[in-house]
Design brief:
This protein has 123 residues and is mainly α. The protein is built from 5 helices and no strands. The longest helix has 31 residues, at 3-33. The termini are far apart.
């Protein structure tokens, strides 16, 4: 390895080592200083000060997961619009056509989900 490589990434490596060391020291200090007496009260799930009722493993509707996946999907796809907007002038007509096709595919997926009822909460 030459010195230039170490000069480029030495600070990053040092920061990573310090972060791992600090995390290890904090975990070790927590184990040494903290109290370890288990009680029934401590083992109860904490629900914002409200005593929990029922089973925590109650099944959720698939609708919640579908909306979460759709949000992530469209959020990630929207992120791709930012780099495109930054280099729009360099891409010229080719970039414009590609992005129009990309948005058409997104729109087709959104319409498909809408027609399938994935966004309908009144079913």
């Amino acid at each position: 390895m030459n010195g230039n490589y170490l000069d480029s990434y030495g600070a990053l490596l040092l920061m990573f080592i310090l972060a791992c060391g600090l995390a290890g020291v904090l975990v070790a200090a927590s184990q040494i200083v903290g109290r370890h007496k288990r009680t029934r009260e401590k083992d109860q799930p904490y629900e914002c000060g409200i005593r929990p009722t029922g089973d925590a493993r109650e099944p959720f509707s698939v609708q919640f997961y579908m909306v979460a996946l759709l949000f992530i999907l469209f959020d990630i796809e929207a992120i791709f619009l930012y780099p495109w907007a930054l280099v729009y002038h360099d891409l010229k007509m080719f970039g414009f056509v590609e992005m129009v096709l990309y948005i058409i595919i997104l729109l087709a997926g959104y319409i498909f989900l809408w027609k399938k009822g994935a966004l309908d909460w009144n079913r």
